[in-house]
Target: Class I SAM-dependent methyltransferase
Amino acid sequence: MTVSTTTRPVTPVGILAAELAEISARLDATDGVGEDLRARLRRASALAGGLDPYVSACTTPESPALRALAARTAAEDWGDHGSAPQLEQEMLSGHVEGQALKLLVHLGRARRVLDVGMFTGYSSLAMAEALPADGTVVACEVDAHVAGIARECFDASPDGHKITVRVAPAADTLAELAAAGERFDLVFLDADKGGYLGYLQQVLDGDLLTEHGVVCVDNTLMQGQPWCGSTPNGDAVAAFNRAVADDPRVEQALLPVRDGLTILRRV
Ligand SMILES: C[S@@+](CC[C@H](N)C(=O)[O-])C[C@H]1O[C@@H](n2cnc3c(N)ncnc32)[C@H](O)[C@@H]1O
Model:
């Protein structure tokens, strides 16, 4: 196993910080640039680069079980993950977003949570930790390998027993849950971005959300791509954000937490 100590920036502010640091370093090495411009760029770089560490320092620390799960994920050799080469450690939601999800579980007095796109289980375990003793998380994941890593981490945690893992395409699991009449107080969407709109329709049309339930959707800023460049994932998220904004059945706020966290509810 290879322990990866660095991660590439995957949030708009992280990417901005890296860009500014690079430009600032290049300018410092360039003759003929005035000290005023150098100083302003250093300040811009410090503002952007200091934001995430400051937010993290002001957020309740993660539990030992979540810290161990993040470390286990970082220790995995993602470059050698043959069955699903598109998976990478940067997919993990992490400390600040996990803590935000925990607070939403508490605020909503949630008992039943649905996690769509589990990866190695960080969001599932974070939300499980915030649930009461009889609370449950149903976690959807299509990749059996990462589901195995998640299960190992859940088994080592005092709250992992609250989580049921369903290894299958999420659309199939959502259809089965709707057919079984299951309902959830909090749904977290974090699987394939091209599937987001379909998952939201399944949740709303399949009556998977309780009366006061909320849906949280990750990566709705998608590294700035919806307004600053185009990739298939950026286009999918932009289309999702537009569709949500135009849907009179819901009201929503897009919070700039990590790579964007939209919280919505049925009105
Ligand atoms: C961004 S990661 C999820 C991160 C996780 N929520 C966390 O907190 O660390 C997305 C996950 O969705 C899974 N996924 C992608 N397409 C899927 C599908 N159609 N059904 C279920 N899971 C899917 C991927 O295998 C990946 O593990």
Summary: The mean pLDDT is 94. Residues 84, 87, 91-93, 117-119, 122-123, 140-143, 146, 169-170, 190-192, 195 surround S-adenosylmethionine (CB under 6 Å). The first strand starts at residue 112 and ends at 116.
